[in-house]
Amino acid sequence: MDRAADCVSGDSGRHQDLGCHQRGFRNAGCLCRCRWVWTTDSHGDPACKHGFDTRGCHPRGATGPGSSVVLRVVGAFPRPRGPSAEVHGLTPRRRSFISKFRPLSTDDGPEGLTLVGSTEQSTRTDIAGDVRVGLTSMPKWLPCIYFYDDAGSELFEQICELPEYYPTRTERSILETHADALVAHVQHRVDLVELGSGSATKTRLVVEALLRRHGELRFIPVDISRSILEESSRSLVEDYDRLEVHAVAGEYHDGLDYLKQQGAPPRLILWLGSNVGNFQRPDATHFLQRLHSTMRAEDRLLIGIDLRKEATVLEAAYDDAAGVTAAFNKNLLTRLNADLSADFDLDRFVHQSRWNAAEGRVEMHLVSQGRQSVCIKGIDLTVEFEDGESIHTENAYKYSAEEIESLATSAHFEAECQWLDEAQRFSVNLWKPRS
User: Fold this and answer.
1) What ranges do the domains of the chain cover?
2) Phi then psi for 317, rounded to 5 degrees?
């Protein structure tokens, strides 16, 4: 069921012109300067405080015809090693920054394909340090960034299609209904940027709307999984005429660094899937402030934020009956067994999701079944577990209307438009940077 009403400037009723400090949900639907609409129908503990790409799933959507376009896949080395390639005509600081983005060879890509990404060695070094810190802490934790190897990324794609996991289909329904309305707020041709792009299938709804409005588009997806990023980028350039893709293989901070070097045109930045919920609240503000520092007045941020709701719905979304989320969580241990020569017995750990009402977050844990010792040969570490002791692997913070308003204000954004589903489970918010 769709319901719409025009906003009246200066109206003291519920259809108000929206000032930055006066926005709220005001019922389900879009609350913005132009319309109010009904529609029908993801961690921030130390494990994720650095802004890793998590829970960034995009379900499959419609495709369009494609023709000759250029695909450039651009990634980042978190810890560049060795001499930098010479870059002429730049300051030393600029040369150092540009050298962070280096190509990897590809033999079977579309014409014009350039693939760049981080080295496996630097990733293994990160795992070693992070696992040592996390598993020697009390309570124990592991960084959620390591969910997303190839197997983990595929499992998460499956999670997004589960009946219990409402965020994906709810956000998708909002975008299906309002993609043209949201791009109407973008007056000029833009570059489309997405943080944590995943399979980029929800993104296709925005891509199609922008192509309808402006005729051509450059898309810059950022994702930590090179395999998913490359697959989705290839699919996009094959399916859409007049679309150019420049993909950044790396973490969020790599994406921000890449954005800093980009010039015109203006940008519409997507941060969907309630990935903001994977940050502790202060860290979410800090990251958005960093993002704000890369933006110009004409840029816009489209951010999906999951809403607080009953505990039974939330816990089921992160502990499905089919056991896919449990397999996703345990895959973290499988990865440590492979990458660090650990001997975790997956049968002796149980997946658990918990709603922490005081913190406003869903927590994911791996709970030890009995006392046990785990040897991690790759970092020369033995870890002791008590019966019932858990490894905290992920948080997914949920937001109220007031918390979304506070987040925007503290990160120096002004809300321009907001869309909700009819059940008020999820929000899609269009923000503009405040000077």
Assistant:
1) 46-124+166-309+403-433, 134-150+312-397
2) -65, -25
Distance CA 149, CA 226 (A): 9
Burial class for 120, CB neighbours closer than 10 Å (0-12, 13-18, 19+): exposed
- CATH architecture classification, 46-124+166-309+403-433: 3-Layer(aba) Sandwich (3.40)
Cα separation, 154 vs 151, in Å, equals: 5
Tokens of 200: 């980029």
Per-residue confidence in pLDDT tens, the chain, 435 aa: 333 332 222 333 322 222 222 223 333 333 333 323 333 333 333 333 333 333 333 322 333 333 323 343 333 323 332 322 222 222 333 333 344 655 555 556 664 344 555 444 445 558 999 999 999 999 999 988 899 888 998 999 899 999 999 999 999 999 999 999 999 998 889 999 999 988 888 999 999 999 999 999 999 888 888 888 888 888 898 899 889 888 888 788 777 777 777 666 899 999 999 999 999 999 999 999 999 998 999 999 999 999 999 999 999 999 999 999 999 999 999 999 999 999 999 999 999 999 999 999 999 999 999 999 999 999 999 999 999 999 999 999 999 999 999 999 999 999 999 999 999 999 999 999 998
